[in-house]
Fold:
Amino acid sequence: MERGHIFNPNYVLVTSPSLLFDPTVKPLDGMVEGSVLFVNSSKDVPIVDSKKIRVIYRDVTDLALKHVGKDILSATMGAVACKLSGLIGLQSLVDSVSEELEELGLEPELIEKNIQLAKECYSSVESISLCGLEYRPLHNVVEVRYMGERGIPDLLSMGNTALRKTGSWRVLKPLIDRNLCTACGICYIYCPESCISLDEQGYPLINYDSCKGCLVCAVECPMKAIKAERESVWS
Ligand code: SF4
Ligand code: SF4
Structure:
């Protein structure tokens, strides 16, 4: 029920293995011996950590693409967390997914696809009991206060700079088909990361060091000239 920093997590779920190597994220910091790390990846990634944490790899992005056709990971990771912790049963998970998506006004067919996705994610891992782990008092959890238009404090912290290679977060990679592109420049305008530039002829060029793969450009392109393919580095 807390939304804030958790300094000594017993379960850590990492949506992309690239985050394991991001020095400003440090997802393994604070994990105690015996705690569980889940990594959304089909491949084992070398974890440089002397502590005896338990590491599980599963490609839940693949499951999301299979069931709903999008790399939406919150429900998938939520389902994994429910099962890993052993605290939330399958029916409770299904009821919650159904209730939340109904509230959002999704079509019954799409809700059903999300339920099937949650079920497959749930069954893709085993529960891991953390009995006997060191107890950490609640004061290790701190509240992050919303500061209105100023956002939250972390937005100003070190690491949120132009030098940061946010391209490593990408799950889907936008690819521009020059044969279809009319150099209208709409993708250049809409890219929320300003990582599309225009060449001398006005054709767009994507800076993959910064592109997060949000695919706003693909949605806005009137010529459907931008296709997405699964990023090969981490899949
Ligand atoms: S995928 Fe998103 S971040 Fe990448 S170029 Fe397109 S709009 Fe920009
Ligand atoms: S929006 Fe599409 S057609 Fe226009 S410049 Fe970008 S890729 Fe080309």
